[in-house]
Amino acid sequence: MAKALAAGIGRGLGVARISYDPWMQRVTPTAMADAATVLMNSGTVRQGTRVLN
Question: Among 12, 53, 49, which Cα is nearest to 32's?
């Protein structure tokens, strides 16, 4: 995946809006797959997992 332009650099070039899609749509399933692997291998949830609700 290509490296994203830093927001500060874009702002300096006059960019008013940045979109990270579909990057964010890839992060969630990747994180879920990684969490499932850890859970299956260790039987516990990874240390440092944040409670979001």
Answer: 49
Token pair, residue 20, equals 């990270």
Kindly report, residue by residue over 15-46, the tens digit of the pLDDT.
Answer: 888 777 777 788 889 989 999 999 999 998 87
Taking the whole predicted model, whether its pTM rises above 0.70 is answered as: no
Residues near 23 by beta carbon (within 8 Å), at least 6 away in sequence: 1, 4
Distance of CA 29 to the CA centre of its chain: 9
Structure tokens given for 18? 């940045």
Please tell me the distance from the alpha carbon of residue 50 to that of residue 36, in angstroms, as a whole number: 15
